[in-house]
Structures are given as C-alpha cells and as structure tokens.
Amino acid sequence: MIVFATSDKGGTGRSVTCANIAYRRALGGDDVAYVDFDFGSPTAATVFELGSAVHGVTHRGVHSCLLGRTTEPARLDVWLSSESDALRRTLASAGRLCLVPGDPGGGEFPADEAVTRRCAALLLAMEQEFDVTIVDLSAGRSYAIDIALRTTALPEFENVVTRWLVFHRWTRQHLEATAALVGHERGILGVGVHWGHDADELGRRIRYVRAAVPGTGASSVAGLRAEQAEWLREVDADLTRRSGRLGLGRTSTLGTVPLDPVLQWKEQIITDEDVLKPAIANAETVTAFRDLADALTDDERWEIL
Length: 305
Ligand SMILES: Nc1ncnc2c1ncn2[C@@H]1O[C@H](COP(=O)(O)OP(=O)(O)OP(=O)(O)O)[C@@H](O)[C@H]1O
Ligand SMILES: [Mg+2]
Known about the structure:
The chain is built from 13 helices and 8 strands. By secondary structure, the protein is an alpha/beta fold. The chain has a single domain, classed as Rossmann fold, CATH 3.40.50.300. Strand 7, helix 10 and strand 8 form a beta-alpha-beta unit. Helix 1 packs across helix 12 and helix 5 packs across helix 6. The radius of gyration is 19 Å and the shape is globular. The chain binds adenosine-5'-triphosphate and magnesium ion. The site of magnesium ion has 3 residues, from helix 1.
C-alpha cells in the first residue's frame, strides 16, 4: 500500500503524524517506509532523530532519484541509526522502519515524462519491499502532488492500493483551504482527472486527518475561565458544522490527533514509555496514532463514502 500525505497549508502536523503512524505500523510488524517528498524542505529525519540526514542526503535522496542522478535512493534504518535510545531499543518483533530522505537544498520541479517514469520505478520498488509506504508530499498545490497523481494514473498502478491523507488543523482557514485543495478544479481531484484518474474512485481514496486539535473537555479547559471554556465549545461546534458543509465531516475524516504538549515543543516519535515513565505525552495522542495506523488498512473505513 502507498499512502500519500498532503495538506494545503504548511505546519499542519503532517510529517510528525505520518512518522508516528509509520512507527505504530512498524511496531505492529509491518515493514514500513517513509519517503520524504517534501522537495523544498525535506527535514523528516529530525522526527526520527536521524541527525546525519536532517536536511536530506546529498546526491542519494529522493530528488536525485527523480532527476535521474541515482537509481537507488538511500534508505536509513531507524532502529539501527536513530539517536533515540527508545527507538534503538525497539522490540525485535517489529517490522523494518526506513526513511528514504530528500536531498539538501532541493526545490520543486515539474513532472515531465522522465520524472514520472522514475517516480513509478521508485514507488513500485518500495511497494515490493515494504508493506506500507508513506509518501510525505510538499504542502499546497505542489509539483509533488502533480507527480504523485500523474505516476499513479499509469497502468502499472492499477493493482497497487493507493490512499491519500489530507491533513488540516481545526480552524476556519484550514477547513476552507483543505476543501479547495481537494475539490478546486486545480486541486487533487481536478488534477487527478486530468492525468486519467476516475474522480469518484480517486475521491474514495482520500480521507482527512485533523491534527493538533485542542480539547474542549473538562481536563483540557481546566486552566481557563468559565467564559473562555464556553466560548471554545461554541467555536468547536461552529467548526464541526462548517466541516460537514465543506465535505470534511466525520465520514470523510480518518482520525483526529489531539494537541499534545510534547509535540508542541518537539517534533518526535511518541513511544509508549513517553506516556508512562516519565509521563510527558498524553495517552490519547498515542491512541490517536494507533487508530490512524490501524485505519490505513481498514477497508470498511475507506468504503463508506
Ligand atoms: N498533535 C500535535 N500537538 C501539538 N503539536 C503538534 C501536533 N502535531 C504536530 N505538532 C507540531 O506542529 C508543528 C508542525 O508539524 P509538522 O512539521 O509535522 O507539520 P507539516 O505539516 O509537516 O509542516 P511542513 O509543511 O512545514 O512540512 C511541529 O512543531 C509539530 O511538532
Ligand atoms: Mg513536514
């Protein structure tokens, strides 16, 4: 399975959430690859604490591969190479977890036929080697989205399961922008149809993820005045109504990740230890990552639209 992750705005929580989903699936025994397709800013290595590759890997990253400078991009094994003791101590029952990094100083480049061909070769190789490949695309209406759509419209991908996660924060601007990223004539569906995808079929492969959503329950509003808590609940209800009207309601949403204090301060994998000793992260955050990881392959969750 190949999962493309995107968002209209930057800083939504796409990379951190995807890295945690990848981690949870690997813990469950899957071989998982995380491919950094954020051409302008390929910094996913930070989340896995792979210090040597925080800005990508020179001449051996995804850009070099798509531009024909290398046929084999680097694969960094997180269990072996991470600077995090907790990640290096991962149980042997886990599957592989590999980062395929970008290149430092890379930028966006358009999808011509040669790039599409190389992208197809890369993704088909990943699909053979890994159970789940998560492709973290650049934010906005990027060339990265265009390359992904053009490539997956090729006949070779007919039998490959591809899914899309579109990330947004829980605000009015994010809801509007996300609906447009998917539904605008130059959005994912429009560009997909241009390259030969069927709109209904592609629509069934797209689900939304709400990231870093502030809670409105008693424990989340404990430090606020009663008027503030009441106002927050009204805003939350308004956002719920808006999301439904824009087609980003509950049935099209795969999951919601709560705002977590750890992730506000540091982009990282949250291990089970982080919610136990010392209990720095919230258990609800891990539950949300686990649910999302399970939902990726839960066909019923993808058939209801
Ligand atoms: N659930 C969460 N709670 C609190 N903060 C979060 C949460 N998820 C992500 N963040 C924080 O939000 C910031 C942006 O997250 P991240 O880098 O994953 O976003 P992104 O969409 O990949 O951004 P970019 O477009 O720059 O690649 C980071 O500092 C991250 O740690
Ligand atoms: Mg990112």
